[in-house]
Specification:
With 258 residues, the chain is an alpha/beta fold. It is built from 8 helices and 6 strands, in the order H-H-E-E-E-H-E-E-E-H-H-H-H-H. The protein is globular and about 65 Å long.
């Protein structure tokens, strides 16, 4: 069941996406994760707003930004464990590279990239707050491939003493704890501000309706395929598709020759 707009937290996709579309928050967020200073960040035009008028399949709630030093950052919040996240990072990496090459650049001009997933669970079960991956030689782990790609999986449930106190406070805040420093207090105030914004409320409601319509259409398409195959009784079609028996009967009528 989807959350009410007033209950959204920073760990919820929509809220995270809205807040991170502001450089005031996105820049220090990246700096705290990576332990570096970033001169500035830039958003492609497509990332400046959430286009909820488009088909729900095309709506992206991840954040894609570039800095002034030829580096690309892709950030996404993850709160469910049932996705194949390692291969999802691979897909995102490929998307970043294709986006650059489609602009006419040579592969030699591919920018350094970071794919960052902020997870509210421990994907690898080692208790770390941060897992950083780069391509390295199996025979000699000291030898890096040098392809300028880094994938970072953050874990708000970490137990190790493996990050800075500032980073720990940020991850704790994302996990639902009270803000403990200036930056997390600013993020908390931003969450409260978004909750009071009527435009964002309408966008959220519209996005949820788009998702629901897409979900219902997928159930109908699934039932239609099963009915066309003709291998299952109608009760099974209803059970497997998630539709009611009455809905399945209506679909069956549609398939009958006139």
């Amino acid at each position: 069941m989807e959350k009410a707009f007033e209950e959204l937290q920073i760990k919820d996709d929509f809220m995270f996406s809205v807040i991170m579309r502001t450089p005031k928050f996105c820049k220090p967020f990246l700096e705290r994760i990576l332990g570096i200073k970033i001169s500035r960040i830039e958003y492609p035009k497509s990332q400046e707003t959430i286009d909820i008028s488009a088909d729900a399949k095309s709506v992206r709630l991840d954040i894609y930004v570039e800095d002034g030093k030829e580096t690309v950052y892709n950030i996404e919040m993850q709160t469910t464990e049932n996705r194949n996240l390692p291969k999802r990072t691979r897909y995102y990496q490929g998307t970043i590279d294709l986006n650059i090459l489609e602009k006419g650049d040579n592969y030699k001009d591919l920018k350094r990239s970071f794919v960052i997933f902020v997870c509210t669970f421990d994907l690898f079960g080692e208790g770390r707050h941060i897992y950083t991956f780069e391509n390295r030689c199996i025979q000699n782990p000291e030898l890096g491939l040098g392809d300028d790609t880094t994938k970072i999986i953050l874990n708000t449930k970490g137990t190790m003493d493996d990050v800075t106190p500032e980073m720990k406070k940020l991850l704790d805040f994302i996990d639902g704890k009270e803000p403990e420093d200036d930056f997390t207090r600013e993020l908390d105030e931003a969450v409260q501000s978004v909750r009071k914004n009527e435009k964002w409320r309408l966008d959220y409601m519209t996005l949820q309706m788009n998702y629901q319509e897409k979900y219902e259409q997928e159930k109908i398409d699934s039932a239609m395929r099963m009915l066309e195959d003709g291998d299952l009784p109608l009760e099974k079609v209803a059970m497997y598709s998630g539709l009611t028996l009455e809905q399945v009967l209506e679909l069956e009528k549609e398939l009958q020759p006139v």
